[in-house]
Design goal:
This protein has 2 helices and no strands. It is an all-alpha fold. It has a domain of about 35 residues. α1 runs antiparallel to α2. The longest helix is centred in the C-terminal third of the chain and has 30 residues.
Length: about 70
Amino acid sequence: MDTPRPISSTGELLKAALAKEQQAHDFYDHAILQCKIKPVQELLERLKDEETRHIRLIRDMLVKLELG
């Protein structure tokens, strides 16, 4: 297994966090399609929505960082 290289900037940190949030969003999105239990689907939807908020927040941070 490869050792991840150190993160050397705020931008790199935010981009790494964005990638993880997107992975989590995609995981929940896929799980919703596979799940047949309504209360679990609802939970997965809420979790996916939370990841969507995180993605938006991180993207906003990246824009602010790029604008200075």
